[in-house]
């Protein structure tokens, strides 16, 4: 690929892939057909061959793909109608109206760094986005309760797909609980205490935080849902709401009484997952961290498995189908950039992953029966490893309209950055477009 960067982008003879060559030819014809800034100059000074070539390209009458989308200030927000087949390659901003799930739950660190370069958080609709939304719409059927994990090569855009699904469900009046940094559930960043009754390690502070975020994002729906089961716990502090009370009162009780927050979180999710009036999306990024050994230590300084922690264990029960979501879906996304939390053998085999997700397990690899139980029934949602020309053009347009590029935008710049990154979404932005900041 390095030889392509050194030569003009219009020359495609060095591109070995037939599919990539065909896409570049299509893009080159489209991008060359529009008059640039130099088109206003007098063509009399040009050589006859150059004038003839210019005339031949005008007959195509095709606009460059990276000029189709609107200005950043005029960009529309994600909505239920924005994610459709006709919107592929179009950029939409993540709504900043209340409730804003990105502000309340947060975003993955890599995505947060990318948002810092733009005036407002946004993303481009991909074909995978449309397919994922179709899958979520089907999950409203009680007979179809998908437990899906977004997979794909490093940098293919898995976290962005998850954020788009969260924004769509929020706009569609779903109840949403998002955990954008699943590693923080097991990296010993929050307090924990051992509970002899359940023989697990409770995470009361983390549970209270999730309850607070759940309430802030879905307050109206949680007020409408009524308690169907009493909250009973030995030696629980007084003040628990009675049956028939709004579910939000139980959440307030868990936030106020942190000592029982872990049990309240379990009861709240049970109530939400059993009702059918509001679809429920349980989204977890860094999903593979749940199936790894945690960085917590017991009083004897022995490592604690992830399924011995209250919050990861609760999520894994929903992932395995031990706890059912009657109306909605569980949606996860694996991350491949954390050496301490790689995709384990059990999850690798359950999702039937390829070599881009790590070393393939062999017959001698150790397997945990418990983790095999918690990973059964999970379905993989593969993300394309490469952006197509239309999707990459939408990203390029966002950076142009937002004036985030420090190099004069041109057809050659777009095609060269797309070629250098081999269409990988992360590489196209970080080593392609962001490299213009060094120029």
UniProtKB/TrEMBL annotation:
GO CC field: mitochondrial small ribosomal subunit
Subcellular location as annotated: Mitochondrion
Region Disordered, annotated ranges: 32-59
UniProt xrefs under InterPro entries: Ribosomal_mS29
Record flagged with keyword Cytoplasm: no
Listed Pfam families: DAP3 (PF10236)
Ranges of compositional bias, category Polar residues: 36-46
Molecular function terms from GO: structural constituent of ribosome
Main localization category: mitochondrion
Keyword terms, alphabetized: Mitochondrion, Ribonucleoprotein, Ribosomal protein, Transit peptide
NADP in keyword set: no
Family membership noted in the UniProt record: Belongs to the mitochondrion-specific ribosomal protein mS29 family.
Name of the protein: Small ribosomal subunit protein mS29
Organism, scientific name: Serendipita vermifera MAFF 305830
């Amino acid at each position: 690929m390095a030889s392509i960067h050194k030569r003009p982008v219009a020359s495609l003879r060095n591109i070995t892939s037939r599919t990539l060559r065909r896409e570049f030819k299509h893009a080159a014809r489209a991008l060359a057909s529009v008059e640039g800034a130099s088109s206003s100059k007098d063509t009399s000074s040009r050589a006859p061959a150059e004038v003839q070539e210019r005339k031949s390209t005008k007959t195509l009458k095709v606009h460059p793909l990276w000029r189709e989308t609107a200005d950043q200030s005029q960009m529309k927000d994600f909505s239920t109608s924005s994610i459709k087949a006709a919107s592929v390659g179009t950029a939409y901003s993540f709504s900043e109206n209340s409730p804003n799930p990105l502000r309340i739950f947060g975003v993955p660190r890599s995505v947060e760094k990318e948002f810092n370069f733009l005036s407002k958080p946004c993303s481009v609709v991909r074909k995978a986005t449309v397919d994922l939304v179709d899958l979520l719409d089907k999950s409203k059927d009680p007979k179809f309760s998908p437990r899906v994990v977004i997979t794909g090569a490093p940098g293919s855009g898995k976290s962005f797909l998850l954020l788009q699904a969260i924004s769509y469900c929020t706009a569609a009046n779903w109840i949403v609980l998002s955990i954008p940094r699943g590693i923080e559930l097991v990296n010993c960043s929050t307090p924990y205490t051992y509970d002899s009754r359940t023989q697990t390690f409770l995470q009361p502070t983390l549970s209270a935080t999730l309850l607070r975020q759940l309430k802030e994002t879905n307050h109206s729906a949680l007020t409408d849902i009524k308690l169907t089961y009493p909250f009973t716990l030995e030696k629980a502090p007084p003040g628990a709401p009675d049956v028939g009370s709004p579910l939000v009162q139980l959440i307030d009780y868990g936030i106020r009484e942190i000592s029982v927050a872990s049990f309240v979180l379990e009861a709240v999710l049970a109530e939400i997952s059993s009702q059918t009036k509001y679809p429920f999306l349980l989204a977890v990024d860094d999903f593979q961290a749940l199936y790894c050994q945690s960085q917590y230590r017991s009083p004897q300084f022995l490592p604690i498995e992830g399924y011995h922690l209250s919050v990861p264990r609760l999520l894994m029960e929903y992932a395995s189908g031990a706890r059912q979501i009657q109306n909605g879906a569980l949606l996860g996304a694996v991350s491949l950039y954390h050496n301490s939390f790689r995709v384990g053998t059990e999850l690798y085999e359950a999702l039937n992953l390829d070599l881009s997700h790590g070393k393939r397990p062999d017959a001698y690899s150790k397997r945990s029966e418990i983790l095999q139980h918690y990973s059964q029934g999970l379905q993989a949602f593969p993300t394309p490893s490469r952006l197509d020309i239309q999707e990459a053009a939408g990203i390029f347009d966002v950076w142009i309209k937002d004036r985030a590029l420090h190099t004069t935008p041109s057809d050659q710049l777009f095609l060269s950055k797309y070629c250098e990154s081999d269409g990988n979404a992360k590489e196209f932005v970080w080593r392609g477009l962001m490299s213009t900041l060094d120029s």
